[in-house]
Amino acid sequence: MNDSSQAALSLLKELALAFGPPGAEGEVRQVVHRELATLGKVQHDALGSVIVESEGDGPRVVLDAHMDEVGFCVQSIDEEGRIYFVPLGGWWGHVLLAQRVDILASSGQKIPGFIGCKPPHFLSPAERDKVLSLDQMYIDVGASDLQEVLSWGVKVGDPIAPQGNFEEMASSGRYCCKAFDDRVGVGVMIESYRAAVGGGDSLRCQPIAVAAVQEEVGCRGAKTASALSKPDLGIILEGTPADDLPGMPRRQSVLGKGPQIRFMDPTAISNRRLVRWTEAVAEEAGIPIQVAVRKSGGTDASTTHLHGSGVPTIVIGVPARSIHTHSSLIDFEDYQHAVQLVTAMLRKLDEATVASFKSYEE
Ligand SMILES: [Zn+2]
Fold this sequence. Notes:
The chain contains ten helices and 18 strands. The chain folds into two domains: 3-69 and 178-357, Aminopeptidase (3-Layer(aba) Sandwich); 72-162, Elongation Factor Tu (Ef-tu), domain 3. The longest helix has 18 residues, at 180-197. Helix 1 (3-17) packs across helix 5, helix 5 (180-197) packs across helix 9 and helix 7 packs across helix 9 (332-348). Strand 14 and strand 15 (268-269) form a beta hairpin. It has helices spanning 3-17, 26-36, 125-128, 146-151, 180-197, 220-229, 272-285, 301-304, 332-348, 351-357; strands at 41-44, 50-53, 60-66, 71-77, 83-88, 100-104, 110-115, 139-140, 159-162, 167-168, 174-177, 206-212, 233-241, 260-265, 268-269, 290-293, 313-320, 328-331. The termini are far apart. The strands form three sheets. Strands 1, 2, 3, 12, 13, 14, 15, 16 and 17 form a nine-stranded mixed beta sheet that branches. Strands 5-4-9-6-7-8 form a six-stranded antiparallel beta sheet, with no helix packed on it. The chain is an alpha+beta fold. Bound molecules: zinc ion. Zinc ion is lined by residues 66, 181-182, 215, 238-239.
């Protein structure tokens, strides 16, 4: 691996390990500031999204990635010091029991814990066969009682995130960690913005990096950030669920086969001309892509494309297996191809091209 790939990998690792459930994205925000603050004017919306605007003219091209990951929030604490929680984002009970989490206490201290469960010894036959619902689960922080938990500064409302472990698999270039949804998107946003804006090229569009908050609870930051970023075109960057799984036919998101261009899902239809144009850019640059029509799911395109009188958007995703768990898996080559594709798009986009996507006087 060369030096620039090594640097990109370290940044991705730092992003994936950062603590950032919805509404508590501070650690991710710090990385975005550090990486992009010298490359444009930095603004924030009132929810905490970061908007970095480059100098220059031409259409305002927003690169959006969400900083938050699926996590939880402290709902209550019982007399024996068990912490009950509500989910922030979509979780399946099967992936949770005995998993490690960190609670960011109001004191500022991170309190480690795990999601408690009965050992098989105590399970009735009926209990063995069912999926436990999240409201029956609790976090065990090893406390003796409520007073001890309170003494650490843990309060109702404190955010909770999965503990991460970033690991290269035996298959070289494949990495496993929490939060690839959407830290791969944040990484692609940083790398492609930096390559285009800091690369010394004269651009004919104005790239704007948006690191949005609270996607996992309803794409809220992308909506409020749009009031400041005022996009003429939106490129939404995601860690998209890979579908190379048992029993999934007609695959559109296979690890190692390139970034996914999401044509649509129930929340947004990408601009068709923008999709076809992007396919041509990828082909010219020799970048493999996978075009997908998704029957479920949603992204920040859902709120971004409805900003103002409407914004042509496209969703570009790095396939990741088993997202919304502690162990998602990506192929780093897909990540690098996504950076190359978005950078190539920024180098080509100009006034006439963006206008052609939204010209309806046939
Ligand atoms: Zn996501």
